[in-house]
Amino acid sequence: SKQTGYTALDYGFVNTAATRSDITYIDGESGILRYRGYPIDQLAENASFLEVAWLLIYGDLPTEDELADFDERIRRHTLLHEDLKRFFSALPSGAHPMAVLSSATSALSTFYEGKTDPDNPEHVETNIIRLLAKLPVIAAYAHKTSIGQAFLYPDNSLGYVENFLRLNFGVMSEPYEIDPVMARALERLLILHEDHEQNASTSTVRLVGSTGADQFASVSAGIHALSGPLHGGANEAVLQMLGQIRESGESVQRFVERVKNKEDGVKLMGFGHRVYKNYDPRAKIVKQSADEVLDQLGVNDPLLDLAKELEEIALNDEYFQSRNLYPNVDFYTGVIYKAMGFPTRVFTVLFAIGRLPGWLAQWREQNLDNKSKIGRPQQLYTGEPERRYPA
Ligand code: SDX
């Protein structure tokens, strides 16, 4: 403001007292990410999505029996109430899938009146199962609605990721063949997204949950936060950026110059991070698997080469080096999702499906293990001193 000289930047989220958590560790300088102590690359390589979800929520890797029971309980909850399906036809078919996902998640809670008490451990644990089981179904229905295709019912004989692929790409008129390469590649990507400490959407889930709001309301709020292009929406924005560069015929060098000159606020989407001032370890894994996955899917996408060229130029440019700007998790994921057949507007929905276990784990930690007080971010008042209303 004029009196204090503070800039707009200072009016962002001031660093509140640090949130305590045992779940995820990030070292931004060294580019380290661990879920409950396990390095992200070991989990992405060896674990299943539900195994990592259990680890995040309950603190240790599940035994074989625990995982089998967890998987079975989730399969038995995949059906949506038939009334909820009417919800999708109430929205314009061109509605953005993230808007559908967040609203339908909120609407889901209306089917569980009286069974969403945050102080009832039985309700909390059952709603973890319900959300893990139903969010992928809602996400697939949001995708199907956006392309004008009929919904399929979940098939409980399939695994978590396989069921999700079939709900997205299967059609009523013929059997759907699961591609194991695609299933494993998607599972690895989803694992990379499962948690990430106190990012904007997870902080939103915790803040909403701290008021006593239930898991459905908290997760719905998290989906809204994730949709912004500076956060989860960046994976969609990267593909739009790559597509615009390609269509415009603009050279990569010229685009990078525009970014450096901040022309019309253009940014190199998928680059930079609040915490990582080094290469995002997830981006490293995604980039490594991009070539392999596109190869195995028999897809040759010039946008992948364009992304690599952009990275090469940026990493060797003083503007990006001096600001510690590196590729983040969103830089390469979209090219793989596109190769799998997902529309660009569904990419951030995939981020939400991946992030759900982390949101549920962080909400549960705050709610059950160390019940915290209601969230109240601090403020530094920089406005006018007291003054009198003119007589
Ligand atoms: C995710 O927090 C998490 O953990 C998030 C996430 C998760 O898993 O939950 O990791 C997922 O959201 C990843 C981030 C996805 N967003 C994007 O890719 C959007 C593009 N990135 C930027 O908007 C930005 O880098 C942020 C928002 C990600 C981080 O912003 P910061 O740390 O606040 O950085 P900043 O805005 O203070 O920028 C510092 C400088 C500025 O330049 P100067 O004013 O010093 O001249 O770097 C510049 C910025 O203009 N800058 C960029 C840039 N990012 C920062 N310049 C060009 N392109 C960019 N991408």
From TrEMBL:
One of its GO terms (biological process) is tricarboxylic acid cycle. Pathway: Carbohydrate metabolism; tricarboxylic acid cycle; isocitrate from oxaloacetate: step 1/2. The active site is at H273, D330. GO terms for molecular function: citrate synthase activity. Keywords: Transferase, Tricarboxylic acid cycle. PROSITE patterns: CITRATE_SYNTHASE (PS00480). It holds the Pfam family Citrate_synt. Gene3D superfamilies: 2.20.28.60, Citrate Synthase, domain 1, Cytochrome P450-Terp, domain 2. GO terms for cellular component: cytoplasm. It catalyses: oxaloacetate + acetyl-CoA + H2O = citrate + CoA + H(+). Belongs to the citrate synthase family. This is Citrate synthase. The lineage of its organism: Bacteria, Bacillati, Actinomycetota, Actinomycetes, Micrococcales. The gene is gltA.
